[in-house]
UniProtKB/TrEMBL annotation:
This is DUF4381 domain-containing protein. The keyword Membrane applies. InterPro entries: DUF4381. The chain crosses the membrane at residues 26-44. Keywords: Membrane, Transmembrane, Transmembrane helix.
Amino acid sequence: MNPALSQLHDIHLPARISWWPPAPGWWLLLAIVLLVTGILYAVHRLRNRNHWRRFALMELTRLREQHASQQSTHRAVVSELSILLRRVAVSRFPRAEVAALSGDAWLVFLDRGLGENAAFQSDAGCLLTSIPYRPEMAIDSGTLSALFALAERWLKKLPRGKK
């Protein structure tokens, strides 16, 4: 045998690469995944916090369209609008504070939500409390439009978040 070959030793392989700690690229990927997950969670929570407002505004739009296409009487539209505002108020404020309100006290409560003086206590707002007890009558289109605008402003000005 060749003497040079007898002095050769076996090849020593390096130690196996451990799986921990991961390479910097994996840390970066983890950070990106956590960041995206956090952003999606925050967007989901923000979106769900105001689902009641979206629903109420969609319902208000439906009532406006119903009025515009004359599918319902003025009395029915105003009654449904009053019911919508009351449902939103009961869901957004303590039930004991809102549920018993009627007449002028209800209009004052709605005005407090707007932060304006007597906006709902005007001719348009008074329809909410008086029309259910009147016989069917024609209501000026401008008055009804003003009532819809008041209701929309009230819905948009309500505070976000929970009760």
